[in-house]
């Protein structure tokens, strides 16, 4: 059920984090956020998440690096990669590295919720 799913939203866009966190919380999800890959890894070491919404393009530690960490340490955790640079190479690389799904920005709430439901069940 949705109300049992805990999501970590990782993106360097603070405004996007606020909006998406509010939307997902309104849908019954528990949402934590991180503004970069370093912060995401720290949170992942402290708490287990059902799903990570993970931006690819971040400064310092990028999304692919966080994805590698997640798949090595917590292989059961689902990951949806997010990017403003939607192309077949990013989508393919995401899948090769173990992402469960790929979304291009901007996305609307219905598209995001449909993708989340498909990934976490």
Architecture overview:
- This protein has 121 residues and is α/β, with parallel strands linked by helices.
- It has helices spanning 14-26, 37-46, 63-73, 88-96, 109-120, and strands at 6-10, 30-34, 51-55, 78-83, 101-104.
- The chain starts with 5 loop residues before the first strand and ends with a helix.
Helicity, as a percent range: 40-55%
Topology order in helix (H) and strand (E) letters: EHEHEHEHEH
- The percentage of residues in β strands lies in 15-25%
The main β sheet shows up as: 5 strands, parallel
For the termini, the CA-CA separation is 8 Å
**Average residue pLDDT:** 90
Instruction: State the shape.
Output: globular
Going across the major beta sheet, what is the strand order? Answer: 2-1-3-4-5
Structural class: alpha/beta
The DSSP helix count reads 5
Q: What Rg is obtained from the alpha carbons, in whole angstroms?
A: 13 Å
Unreliable stretches:
none
Number of strands: 5
